[in-house]
TrEMBL record:
It is a single-pass type IV membrane protein. Residues 105-231 form the Thioredoxin domain. Coiled coil: none annotated. The keyword Transmembrane helix applies. This is DnaJ homolog subfamily C member 16. Gene3D superfamilies: DnaJ domain, Glutaredoxin. GO terms for cellular component: endoplasmic reticulum membrane. Residues 16-80 form the J domain.
């Protein structure tokens, strides 16, 4: 073990950052940075597939880390070490001490403490848990961005980036960036929720949205990553040409406007982070005092070009409401300055949030806060009254007193609740003093009797009421409940939808190029499944249509097909090609399936039976399928056919119970054996033992209603055997089932006559 430690120390001593980067000891920082960028691009593991590329890239990063830091570079030039270890002799005792505590290798060689107790404890204060992340970090990300690191034990790369991470986090935290660390070994749920499938992983969180970091872990890249998280329109560049327009927008935006004067050509990150934190209250502009075209602006406000200056402008753009100057602008100084200037002197109540902040609910008698509300309108007609109210507010603003105004045409419910006599104040401004009692909208108020015109008398009356209110809280004698205010500044639905769509497209674009395959698999699976279903359906439909066109007869359009469980030879020869569309399953009623298809039929189900003969089988089945096709969607209907040549006696027995609708002639009638029942349709209810009867439509009679009780003899063919009654033409046979679909509709409606029988006879 001693020899191994000595060998490790010797190997550590052979590491030369100058040789790794290929630069000399007198090289400038620009040359070192240029060499690092060139080698980093060449040896990056994502681009270089060489097995040793990762190790080489780590050496390049470590060499640049040493040489880019002047202190570490000086230590290396003096002692041959960057300061992480001052030679083997200085910490030999420490190595053996940790050897007794646990198996330990020299850190200076591996840059990795195998004993977890040796690791830097600076990350402990940043450790995140799932509930803490969801309940506190995500809501807070709407005020400031977060930089989060996902790490784990036994992670060489995690330890390698720790020096850079520690330096950057200290710098960014001082600027107002939130820092978080997630230990994947102990917080697997949170790591999975963040989408981190490997360590180390760096990501940014802003407005509840996660963005992954994909570049080399160096200070410049991390700062740029955090800056890119921020929206691009937070700070507007201000010059002599646009400063008047910028400051004049206070009325439209209902916000104070802040100008920062500095000699930096780019907007400092601190200022951008501040603009993001206060974006709901303030609008920000940046003036680069070294730029030509800002002389007039600097001269008008008497700016010291050598000292950063921050000014807040409210209702008056010719002079700032507050100013702060400091050679080194710190976050705490800026926060204190801006928190005191978040609102206009007489802010407009444009939404419920402003109302709650400017007029908070009283918590105790000592913490009473009153709001003086000017109910006015827009336009030049009300400008004089507003200016007088603003002047009064500037002279009388206190911590316990806030002055606001409301446009009664934009907040009609608010104005109507406070003005009892609307006719008295129509077309005029009114002043109301109110105090919020609870969060449900209950207030106590008093309306100044006379309309506000801004005269001296109006000022005296209002000032007297405020003095009385200081000693007599009961002056607010009226009470009411206010509804929530309309959000005047909210964008319309179409714009909100457009912004949401752009954010979604941006997320998809970022995921497509930067996310790993595990993250992309659900999206790709969904996409390819949709494409497969879409194109598969189109292809199948195209082949199906071409097959139907080829198989269908040229003289006829689409016909419904029939399927029989028992097809004899004659039917197979005479039937046309069976189309694939319009499929109807028709089963022959035989001795084998008689019980299951009729006698033991489930309650609520009916069997619709077509009566035919061998000679009429083909034509009648085709016509029957066409007529009943639209009713095949009902699961309670079954379709069958009965051979008249085999089961004539069974049919005649059933028809005896329907003599009023179809009387059976005397058996001694000479035409008894010649009765033609082909084309009859019976709807059989096996459970309740009844049937409904459809009689064939007689050729030439278009006005009859089948099954409605017409004379039985009118629908029977009485010609002698051997004539057209036994072998009718296809046209007359098809006409027999004419209007069967109407009969089926009446069957489903339950309006057909029912013929009950005591029991079902045997089919044989």
């Amino acid at each position: 073990l001693l020899l191994a430690a000595l060998g490790a120390q010797a190997a550590a001593g052979d590491f030369d950052p100058y040789r790794v980067l290929g630069v000399g000891r007198s090289s400038s920082q620009a040359d070192i940075k240029k060499a690092y960028k060139r080698l980093a691009r060449e040896w990056h593991p994502d681009k270089n597939k060489d097995p040793g590329a990762e190790d080489k890239f780590i050496q390049i990063s470590k060499a640049y880390e040493i040489l880019s830091n002047e202190e570490k570079r000086a230590n290396f030039d003096r002692y041959g070490d960057a300061g992480e270890s001052q030679g083997y002799s200085q910490h030999q005792h420490r190595q053996f001490h940790h050897f007794h505590e646990g198996f330990y290798f020299d850190e200076s060689f591996f840059h990795f403490p195998f004993n977890s107790e040796r690791r830097d404890t600076s990350d402990e204060k940043y450790l995140l848990h799932f509930s803490h992340y969801v309940n506190e970090i995500v809501p807070d990300s709407f005020k400031k961005p977060y930089l989060i690191k996902i790490t784990s034990d036994w992670c060489f790369s995690c330890i390698h980036i720790e020096p850079v991470w520690k330096e950057v986090t200290q710098e960014l935290e001082a600027l107002g960036v939130g820092i978080g660390v997630v230990h994947a070994g102990y917080e697997r749920r949170l790591a999975h929720h963040l989408g981190a499938h490997s360590t180390p992983t760096l990501l940014g969180l802003i407005n509840g949205k996660i963005t992954f970091f994909h570049n080399a872990v160096i200070r410049e890249n991390l700062r740029q990553f955090v800056e890119n998280l921020l929206p691009g329109n937070l700070v507007e560049k201000i010059t002599d040409k646009n400063y008047i327009r910028f400051l004049s927008n206070w009325k439209k935006e209902n916000k104070p406007h802040v100008l920062l004067f500095d000699h930096m050509p780019v907007v400092p990150l601190l200022y951008k982070l501040t603009a993001f934190a206060y974006r709901d209250y303030l609008s920000f502009g940046y003036v680069y005092v070294g730029l030509r075209g800002t002389e007039e602006l600097s001269s008008q406000y008497n700016i010291n070009v050598y000292t950063p200056t921050m000014m807040v402008f409210k209702e008056h753009i010719d002079r700032p409401a507050d100013v702060v100057q400091a050679r080194d602008m710190k976050k705490q100084l800026i926060d204190d300055f801006l928190s005191q200037n978040k609102f206009l002197v007489v802010a407009r109540l444009a939404n419920q949030r402003l109302f709650q902040e400017l007029c908070p609910v009283k918590k105790s008698h000592r913490q009473r806060k009153h709001c003086v509300v000017l109910l006015t309108g827009e336009g030049d007609k009300f400008a004089e009254a507003y200016e007088a109210f603003l002047t009064f507010a500037v002279a009388n603003t206190k911590d316990t007193l806030k002055f606001v105004h409301v446009y009664h045409d934009r907040q009609p419910e608010f104005a109507d609740a406070l003005l009892m006599d609307e006719e008295k104040y129509r077309g005029k401004s009114a002043v109301v003093i109110l105090e919020r009692r609870n969060n449900a909208g209950k207030i106590a108020y008093k309306t100044v009797e006379e309309a506000w015109q801004g005269s001296k008398e109006d000022n005296f009356i209002l000032l007297d009421l405020l003095d009385q209110l200081r000693t007599d809280p009961g002056l607010l004698s009226s009470e009411t409940v206010l509804a929530d205010l309309n959000d005047e500044l909210a964008p319309v639905f179409l714009i909100r939808w457009l912004y949401s769509m752009l954010d979604y497209i941006s997320d998809c674009w970022d995921s497509l190029f930067h996310s790993n395959w595990r993250e992309m698999m659900p999206l790709l699976s969904l996409l390819f499944s949709a494409l497969f279903i879409l194109f598969g359906t189109v292809i199948v439909q195209a082949f199906s249509d071409s097959s139907d066109t080829r198989d269908s007869p040229p003289s006829e359009k689409e016909e419904a097909a029939t399927k029989t469980e028992k097809n004899d030879a004659s039917f197979g020869k005479e039937s046309n090609r069976i189309p694939k569309k319009g499929f109807v399953e028709v089963t022959e009623l035989t001795d084998i399936n008689y019980n299951s298809n009729l006698v033991r039929l489930r309650p609520g189900h009916m069997n619709v039976v077509l009566i035919l003969s061998n000679s009429t089988k083909t034509i009648l089945l085709q016509k029957f399928a066409l007529e009943v096709y639209t009713f095949t969607g009902s699961s309670s209907l079954h379709f069958s056919f009965l051979s008249l040549d085999k089961h004539r006696e069974w049919l005649e027995y059933l028809l005896e119970f329907a003599q009023d609708a179809a009387p059976i002639p005397n058996q001694y009638d000479k035409h008894f054996l010649e009765r033609d029942y082909t084309g009859y349709v019976l709807a059989l209810n096996g459970h309740k033992k009844y049937f409904c009867l459809f009689k064939p439509h007689r050729s030439g009679d278009e006005g009859g209603t089948p099954g409605s009780g017409e004379d039985y003899d009118s629908s029977l063919h009485t010609e002698a055997r051997g004539k057209s009654s036994c072998s009718p033409g296809s046209r007359s046979l098809k006409n027999k089932l004419h209007k069967l679909s109407f009969w089926m509709e009446r069957l489903l409606e339950g309006s057909l006559q029912r013929f009950y029988i005591p029991s079902w006879p045997a089919l044989d």
